[in-house]
Amino acid sequence: MAIxxxxxxxxxxxxxxxxxxxxxxxxxxxxxxxxxxxRALPIEAGDExxxxxxxGLQPGELVLFGPDGRSDAAMLGATGSGxxxxxxxxxxxxxxxxxxxxxxxxxxxxxxxxADAVRVFAxxxxxxxxxxxxxxxxxLLIVAAPGGPMQPCAQDTPTDLILYIRRANRRxxxxxxxxxxxxxxxIHDNNIxxxxxxxxxxxxxxxxxxxxxxGRECSDFQAFSMRALDKGLERDxxxxxxxxxxxxxxxxxxxxxxxWSVDQExxxxxxxxTCGRHDTFGLACTARYYEDLGYPGHVNCSDNMNADLxxxxxxxRAGWPAINFFFNTMLDDTNAIGMDDPWSRxxxxxxxxxxxxxxxxxxxxxxxxxxxNGWNPTDIQVRxxxxxxxxxxxxxYRKSAExxxxxxxxxxxHSRFAQHTRNFIEYNGYWLAxxxxxxxxxxxYWACREKAAVMDxxxxxxxxxxxxxxxxxxxxxxxxxxxxxxxxxxxxxxxCYDHGGMIDDGTVFRLGQDNFRWIGGNDTSGLWLxxxxxxxxxxxxxxxxxxxLHNIAVQGPLSREILSALIWxxxxxxxxxxxxxxxxTIARIGDYDGIPLVVSRTGYSGELGYEVFCHPKHAPxxxxxxxxxxxxxxxxxxxxxxxxxxxxxxxxxxxxAEFCDRTDPFEAGIGFAVPxxxxxxxxxGRTALENRKAHPQRKLVGLEIESGIVxxxxxxxxxxxxxxxxxxxxxxxPILGKTIALARLDLPHTEPGTAVEVGQLDGxxxxxxATIVPFPHFDPTKERVKGNYA
Length: 790
What we know:
Layout: E1 11-13, E2 16-18, E3 28-33, E4 38-43, E5 48-53, E6 60-65, H1 85-91, H2 96-108, E7 118-120, E8 129-134, E9 139-144, E10 161-166, E11 188-192, E12 196-202, E13 207-212, E14 219-225, H3 226-230, H4 239-246, E15 258-260, E16 266-273, H5 287-292, H6 301-309, E17 323-325, E18 328-331, E19 337-340, E20 349-354, E21 358-364, E22 380-385, E23 394-395, E24 409-410, H7 414-417, E25 424-427, E26 430-433, H8 441-450, E27 453-456, E28 461-466, H9 470-477, E29 490-496, E30 502-512, E31 515-520, H10 523-535, E32 541-544, E33 550-555, H11 559-564, E34 567-568, E35 584-589, E36 596-600, E37 609-614, H12 619-630, E38 636-638, H13 640-649, H14 686-694, E39 698-705, E40 716-719, E41 722-733, E42 738-746, E43 755-760, E44 766-773
Parallel strand pairs: 16-23, 24-26, 27-38
Antiparallel strand pairs: 1-2, 3-10, 4-9, 5-8, 5-10, 6-7, 6-9, 11-22, 12-21, 13-20, 13-22, 14-17, 14-21, 15-16, 16-20, 18-19, 25-26, 27-33, 28-31, 28-32, 29-30, 30-31, 33-37, 34-35, 35-36, 36-37, 39-42, 39-44, 40-41, 40-43, 41-42, 43-44
Helix pairs in contact: 8-13
């Protein structure tokens, strides 16, 4: 029987939905196979193997080696296809997954060139197609999702496959799940059952992995400096010092990543975090906590830590200050500290690096009388790894609540921006530069306004929409009229839910009659497109190409001059000088044989500008070519901080600032993207938007602030004591010489010239005088975007 792919179906119990918890039955494993990559897994006789193509049009290939090194497709109950060209190609492409599989094959001594492959989905699969096989013997299974680099003007993007294995022999641990494989060969590997504590030594430079095996389980962690202990001093992680020095509730991978002692000595730094929700406020649970709840004698983490740390001569404490990993602490409007179920999913972990020799202690919290552990305490796995291992910094990202966690990625252009800055922050699953070391956001801003700037926009989500119903799907899902979109044209549009709230804003590129590219700010919009196609039975494919298409924006008065000097276009395509606003051209660097590109005359700066798209493997060379030409003309690299300044001045909206899923396009200030009169076809949200337009409640406006204080997003806007809206974005404008803001206000109070006040502190004790003005504040007629600088 084929396995139903329930990984995107929320688990439900008694009316509670838990999308992030496993929904597969006991004995079933789920293993993503990355696009253009592979997986290697041990298989036993009787195991059922199912391969799923979630996006469609992705071929797969399987190879099974028996214990004697022989490979025969019959061992999977299938007819072989001969030499495994797909597996060989992905092992040779240099991908991390391919390198791991190659090591597994070398260790086993198996010869891939003599293997017998099973090919699936070769004739073109629909989203959700599956193929199932049964292993007749033990062995090593290799699964590949073959695919080469996607050309920027093509749409043959490889996509992920998902492998399910139903084990003939179930290996159930307490809670149902076994710990995932280690990140490397561990020095120390210990399973901590709920109600236990475990202490261990870690040397400087070594790594500590604290892993939530079943999900929704807290683990208290403390580390002591061995050097201080040798002097008779107990110097452990001090949460208050850590919060003060890091400027956040808890450190995260990046620059502000360290945990400190009260003597301001850094003890550990966090390298990877797949959960992103922890606590540094509360103590590890104590005997008194349970006694005050009416549970005297309840086992608790502080007493457990005391007992296990005694071997090192560390004095007991009634309650241990600790880093409470996976504990979900909340601070409400009355300043009360509360808790709820942890955010952690099965297999979530934090990875720390020791900055000095340490004595560490970890627990698996036994609390079963509140939501701290989801009412069900389970086990924690603690591992340590050698100092010679290499782990990249990462903050876990999920495309949706149900999706597999992904590491923070470096864009194809990362190495080039890293030559100019160390200040990278996580943005939608990627590391992006915040500003340039030695330059700063203000210099970058002026470079864009006066000369040119280059910025990395690769995290924008790209989805290829193809097939006979591609136009119909796009017409259904976006507010602009796709029937009027010509090949080679780009249009800015909104995507809405049925109630009119925005999913995302973005651009649609038309590459052919049945070929579109959606570029948005988040994965939700791409997943929404795919969902609509599947639910409505439309003959259209929606495939994620984000990792196949990275882009930089070259913006500013000199951007055309810079790009026209180095970009070649074929005779059938417009040159850079000919390219009109919201059009794109198929191009190459240098000449006919140069690196392939797509160049669009679009941007997010309010200046004349272009976006240059290429495959990530070509990104360094593309950057170098543009930099060689642009640096001569004063071009600077530009980070997120300067980009935010540019877009606020130019009245360009941003997700979770100017809009969210409760904001319609009219309230977000982009009513022009909803042509209800000229687009006669129905689309998702149309009825709600017609009603909202006829009965508007709120409007996005510009504000000029009299003082030099810059309000924060979310600050209230008031007339007298009554709140009439809130700030969405604000800045001190360098070019205008004043403090400006965007704000969403109740409609009766949106007339330009109206005096309002921005409330700070509690909204009443401090007010900033402001006046409503039209927006955009800068270049309202878009002359600079059009290239008119006279």
